[in-house]
From TrEMBL:
Pfam family, one: P_C10
Signal sequence, renumbered to the chain: none
Domain of life, source organism: Eukaryota
Family the entry assigns: Belongs to the UPF0456 family.
Keyword presence, Cytoplasm: yes
Name of the protein in its database record: Protein C10
Subcellular location: Cytoplasm
Gene Ontology terms: biological process: post-embryonic development
Coiled-coil blocks: none
One term under GO cellular component: cytoplasm
Keyword Metal-binding attributed: no
Entry keywords, A to Z: Cytoplasm
Amino acid sequence: MEEARDNACNDMGKMLQFLLPVATQIQQDVIKAYGFSNDGEGVLKFARLIKSYESQDPEIASMSGKLKAMFLPPMTLPPHGAGTGGVAAS
């Protein structure tokens, strides 16, 4: 996982190319022990189930956020109002 993350260099396209397949394989190996099929469909069912529990359980929401942070590069937002064509308040 570390090697895949290093190869991706915080680039979203490279994350999808290098890190996502490794993460998916790990997830497939784990979820089969909990009754999910270890294929793409099982991963999607598991992800949907976790998503449905995020709003009900703060611990699941926190763990889900930490997991996503491992797979997604840090996102930087543009400065508020910059380049949006918005009108400044007077």
